[in-house]
Amino acid sequence: MAHDDVDPDDSSDRLTIGRRIRARRLERGMSLRELAAALDRAPSQLSVIENGRRDLRLGELRRIARVLDVAEEDLLRQEPPSRRAALEIALEKAQAGALYQGLDLPDLPVRRSLSDAAIETILRLHDELGRLHHERAATPEEARRVNGQLREEQARSGNYYPELEATAQELLARIDHTGGPLSHRKVSLLAAELGFTLHSVADLPHSTRSITDAENMRIYLPRERSTTDPRTTVLQAIAAHVLGEKEPADYGDLLRQRVEVNYLASAMLLPEAGAVQFLRAAKTQRELSVEDLRDEFSVSYEIAAHRFTNLVTRHLELPVHFLKTHFSGAIVKAYQNDEVRFPTDALGAVEGQIVCRWWSARQVFTSEDRMSPYCQYTDKPGGTYWCTSHIESGPGGEFSISVGTRFEHTRWFRGRETTRRFASSCPDPDCCRQAEPAQEQRWQGSVWPVARLHASLLAAMPSGTFTGVDRVAMLEFLDRHAPQEQPTDQALPH
């Protein structure tokens, strides 16, 4: 666009300007040809302006305004000059959109013979098609596609976000936290430093872990004890506030927000400087272990494994991968900074895919020793990997948390002396997905299992911008708990 062009926000502004020019021309009783002659322009040149099909230069706008005896500002106003003009603009925008273009329909000229009622009907049909298209897109298939794209972005960055590490450092500095485990008291101090009060309630909606009321600067937490560390819950709420998270526009936006919030909360529980110093010392002694990192900072094994993945590739030049796997073998979370080949679907997503039964992530469930770290080597199509796994329990059952690396890097890890070794040829079906021929023959035609089929496999993603949250219950909860007077401080529950 030239420096003297009128600067509309989008094509709808050009349409509005064009319709305002046309409306003023008709008010003056001028034909298109007469106005074009007064401007020393061809009628076709003026027609494309009135139809919003090209940008209008400021000098042209001034000449048109002068001939039509109207202020420039009047032609630039955002409001359509009439209801008919508003309908025509909306129809033009709809036809220019991706949804209409994808229908492979011919353009519908906006003529006087096209009644207002006809345009309104077309626009309503277009809106309904848009609603159905959006609902169809918000399916598990779309969720897997977006999840796969996000995982690729994370892999390119080594699952390390320097800007979030810096934010965590700034927040901890506000409460003079210099190192070591972040206590419950310091989490409460940080909330107070940011202007929040903490409130444990018995009626928090079942679909939420916490609710933040930014108007009254309150963070609501569940009163009952759960498997989730309350420090994590508070820090996630603080992280969302500090990052200025808004209601997500789509599922991809929601996933990215969750990644950022969880990362920042973990970075406050295990600050980069202290964690890296601890890990470097362990590497020097060839004693790297997730267990020691967990114990040093008093966090869950999963958070320690996640931070281990964030930091060792960036600072210790050790490419690793992370897996959270359900007892059934389905992947819940997966991050990789190395070349390991996770099972993926056609869209590149790994969540929900079944891990090979010979991998450490599933073999750990066969171990009777739940206290000692479980380690094993696995020969995979892409090379030999060493992995350590640990089992944690949650509301959904038992999960294994695994961190692995290629064979050549195992000399830095405790547990490298393990003699456990398995071979995996997955995704080759002969590896572990097919029963023995004799078994197949023995039971052929005699078995009819009833599958545990989750409704979410068939349904669209839950409606609303915060997927899975009952918005009605959440807003009713806020109405019940909105303070009538200045709130008082309340300590973080232990």
Automatic annotation (TrEMBL):
User: What sequence ranges are listed for the domain HTH cro/C1-type?
Assistant: 21-75
| One annotated GO molecular function | DNA-binding transcription factor activity
Known Pfam families for this protein?
A: HTH_3, Peptidase_M78
The answer to whether the entry has keyword DNA-binding is yes
The entry's cellular-component GO terms read: cytosol
Q: Which Gene3D superfamilies match?
A: lambda repressor-like DNA-binding domains (1.10.260.40)
The UniProt keywords, alphabetically, are: DNA-binding
Superkingdom is Bacteria
The record's similarity note reads: Belongs to the short-chain fatty acyl-CoA assimilation regulator (ScfR) family.
Q: What is this protein called?
A: XRE family transcriptional regulator
